[in-house]
Amino acid sequence: VIKNHPSSLKLYEQKLLETGEVTKEDVQRIHDKVNRILNEEFAKSKDYVPNKRDWLSAYWTGFKSPEQISRVRNTGVKPEVLKRVGQAITTLPESFKPHRAVKKIFEQRAAMIESGEGIDWAVAEALAFAALIVEGNHVRLSGQDVERGTFSHRHSVVHDQETGAKYCPLDHVVMNQNEELFTVSNSSLSEFAVLGFELGYSMENPNSLVLWEAQFGDFSNGAQVMFDQFLSSGEAKWLRQTGLVVLLPHGYDGQGPEHSSSRLERFLQMSDDNPFVIPEMDPTLRKQIQECNWQVVNVTTPANYFHVLRRQIHRDFRKPLIVTAPKNLLRHKECKSNLSEFDDVEGHPGFDKQGTRFKRLIKDRNDHKEVEEGINRLVLCSGKVYYELDDERKKSERSDVAICRVEQLSPFPYDLIQRELKRYPNAEIVWCQEEPMNMGAYSYISPRLYSAMKTLGRGTFEDIKYVGRAPSAATATGFLTVHVQEQSELVKKALQPELIKFP
User: Residues in domain Transketolase-like pyrimidine-binding (predicted)?
Assistant: First the structure.
């Protein structure tokens, strides 16, 4: 029956012929044209070789494919520019009447810029945006409640309490600024739709820093199709680069299984670097990042967050960036940076051979020498658990323990990990995380850490000790008292005087 039924095309042709809107010659001409195009393209396909530059449009001219060498660039900003934009983003019009709590926040921010000390997470982010705007780049941020920030930390749009008028400080960074240069908008409750839109936007213009923020990292699973089908594999499948930044608030604060985990392990599992092959690690090149599908970071300082955002634009290729963004670090008394860590002045903190830039690994805060034989344990960690470990180390007076922060999880910083392994030749090696063993970074880190150890003759896989929560179906407990107990136990275990048993 189906075989004998006229096709939609045939029925439509007949209808148009009956009404006299087309002639038989018109129909035949269209048939001939389509068949000619299909036959020509089929013939070309037999000897077609994909061109790595096929994805380039006018905006993308000059950007490099993974086969072309790209060098590390400085992401520091001149001190006078930092001061100028810092004043702009912390100043409200005299006639503007903000909420008294917001007014106090802006006064505190102005004091940070003036003193150059105690820069917090929100100010670091605003400085990164402002510095990019000054350089002529478009910055675009969307997501649920991003104008204020889910945790009332951002305040990129403030409201006059008498008139209801809105004011966006980042619209006033330079004189006569085009208000479209900075765009921030609260989105609807559809992670799938909004992330998909921003992904498309980022592909259109590489000179835009495009960011999507989940209200909590847990909610990103509503956009899982976008991560699986497009963001993680788009360049491999279609030769299309994107520099989209995804901010996923993550951290174990006792808020329960729906507000603790961005499912970091999923993003790491989709990373395409080989855990058993250490790539070329030239400190002046970015070949490792160019050849991977995306970057996953868990940053612990405002300055490092500033630099990782600027790094997205200050390079001649584009890669997606997954940021497991903090929650309690937004106001943590120890999570501060000095303005000198943001600038490009030689001799200031953060300045090295390539200038001031993002640190893929932050070494122990104590001023350890190139080789420290007296250190008995090296604890590697990532994210906000570092501050709890450091606090416990002070309390227990464990001067024989070093704690290093792996800020960039993927691609894995083999060169810097090996530098620390050489620094502490007698140290027991520990990976510490807040997440359950079957989640977080452990499954990703362990084979790569072993590869780094193996080339240095530093033991077997069983010499990597695990400290964290036990395997679990749920990401976190729903009971605050249980959370506190678990967190306390894992922090204490990482600093215990006895050797830690495998795993």
Answer: 119-332
Return the sign of the alpha-carbon dihedral for residues 141, 142, 147, 153. Answer: negative
| CB 360, CB 411: distance < 8 Å | no
CB atoms within 10 A of CB 19: 8
Name residues of the chain where pLDDT drops below 70: 50-58, 347-355
**Chain-centroid distance, C-alpha 486:** 28
> Given 3-state DSSP classes, what are the helix, strand and coil percentages for the chain, each rounded to the nearest 5?
40, 15, 45
Element (H, E) at 184: strand 182-186
pLDDT of residue 31: 95
- Residue 286 · residue 66 · CB < 8 Å: no
Q: What is the pTM of this model?
A: 0.88
What are residue 208's DSSP bridge partners? 138
Give per-residue burial for 25-46: e unless 16+ CB within 10 Å, then b: eebeeeeeeeeeeeeeeeeeee
Among residues 223, 82, 84, 63, the alpha carbon closest in space to that of 142 is found at: 223
For residue 57, the model assigns a pLDDT of: 59
DSSP 335: -
Question: Which DSSP string corresponds to 30-73?
Answer: HHHHHHHHHHHHHHHHTT----TTTT--GGGTT---TTS--B--
Q: Minimal CA–CA distance to 233: which of 272, 276, 191?
A: 272
Cross-strand partners of 322 = 246, 296
The residue written with tokens 């995380």 in the block is 433
Residues 365 and 393 sit within 8 Å (Cβ to Cβ): no
Length of the chain: 503
How far is 151 from 482, CA to CA, in rounded Å? 24
Q: 34: which 2 tokens?
A: 């389509």
**What are the distances in angstroms from CA 83 to CA 268, 313, 335, 342?**
37, 21, 21, 11
In the block, which residue shows the tokens 């500033």? 306
Q: Which of 452, 482, 487 is nearest to 467 (CA)?
A: 487
Closest of 155, 113, 127, 452 to residue 276, by C-alpha = 452
What would the pLDDT profile of 483-494 be if each residue is shown by its tens digit? 999 999 999 999
pLDDT attached to residue 41: 92
